[in-house]
Amino acid sequence: MTAAVHPDAVHPDAVHPDDAAAAVARAHRDEWARLVGTLTRRFGDLDVAEEAAAEAFAAAVARWPADGVPRNPAAWLTTTAQRRALDRLRRESKRDARHQEARMLHDDTPPEPLGAVDDDRLRLIFTCCHPALAMPSRVALTLRLVGGLTVPEIASALLAQEAAVGQRITRAKTKIKAARIPYRVPSAEDLPARVTGVLAVLYLVFNEGYLASGSGTDPVRQDLTAEAIRLARLLHDLLPDDGEVTGLLALMLLTEARREARVAGGELVTLDEQDRTGWDADLIAEGHRLVRERLVAAAAGTPPGRYQVLAAINAVHTSARDVRETDWSQVVALYDQLAVVDPSPVVALNRAIAVAELDGPDVGLALVEPLAAALDDYHAYHATRADLLRRCGRDAEARDAYDRAVALTGNTAEAAALRRRRDAAR
């Protein structure tokens, strides 16, 4: 008997296994969050949604090479996932499972509007970032369910242990179920108070794409940066007058504009060595326009927040046609401003880098050394220290610092660049 072929599939002879695998990967990148969001809206349970979505993608991995890639992968995955979710309900033998199944299969009533923006992924973000959850749990859960990151990737992004991240995700889902946290975009009056946690999550998703971790991962993951920018644009449409939303979008655009120039020959290319003709002029122009909007607001008496200052720093960098034209005094002044709203050791580290460009590597190194206790497990601290030691002529110490940075970084292209600089310090 010939096996039935999914009606949306192409003929299997037309699909090479590599093409099918690429189609699954593309669908996972494009549809994971939307699928989890759709299932959450329909079934009201994050565990059911996540498990059913994962099973649907597993089915795609198994079936698409043989049956063909569906003409509408999203519809195929949604149908498959919904069937898997219903199968789970049957297995759990809930008392009202048959009634619930019948309603889900035959209820043609249009869903009630759940918020100001008709996007399941945005609803999912606000659910994961509900204030009833601890901030670390909000971040981890959203990175998993919306960003589609694995637990090891999340652990790297958060500088946390994998076991701890897994526990956060489990506890967060349990809390959502027990507290009956609604799956919706908050009302207009509640949005400003809720958006801070969402911005933190989107920034971490973007950063994981900007400097991806994992030995088998592309050094720059455009899927993650593009998704973070897409959701940041949605938030900007929703809250056009929120300075931090505008600032984060500008920061992402100005950073993304340099993506094509950031990796060459398998190595990460530092800002001072990048070919600036390869930067995306359209993204830079858009980012600069957003920064100027916030400068006008600041002049009117609205003090800038963290993301607005970071965007302004990136605007200074992307305004220079050559690294030698960078206005380092302005960069230092902006980091001074940032330290007021975000007095973290990472900000102090980045300020020291700018000071070193302005006043010399020995001055910068004197600012970096006291940060050792706070940043000893942070690869960028050791990479910065190594570069400054090398510039000061302390090559042996620089090589040791480069080795420590290589051991800590999870990005393959960055590790390659660090090894090259280490080998040059002889």
TrEMBL record:
Belongs to the sigma-70 factor family. ECF subfamily. Residues 34-94 form the RNA polymerase sigma-70 region domain. Keywords: Sigma factor, Transcription, Transcription regulation. Residues 92-109 have a biased composition (Basic and acidic residues). Gene3D superfamilies: 1.10.1740.10, Winged helix-like DNA-binding domain superfamily/Winged helix DNA-binding domain. The keyword DNA damage does not apply. It holds the Pfam family Sigma70_r2. Residues 194-293 form the DUF6596 domain. One of its GO terms (molecular function) is sigma factor activity. Residues 126-176 form the RNA polymerase sigma factor 70 region 4 type domain. The keyword Disulfide bond does not apply. PANTHER family: BLL6612 PROTEIN (PTHR47756:SF2), BLL6612 PROTEIN-RELATED (PTHR47756). InterPro entries: DUF6596 (IPR046531), RNA_pol_sigma70_r2 (IPR007627), RNA_pol_sigma70_r4_t2 (IPR013249), RNA_pol_sigma_r2 (IPR013325), RNA_pol_sigma_r3/r4-like (IPR013324), TPR-like_helical_dom_sf (IPR011990), WH-like_DNA-bd_sf (IPR036388). GO terms for biological process: DNA-templated transcription initiation. This is Uncharacterized protein. Residues 92-113 are annotated as: Disordered. It comes from the Bacteria.
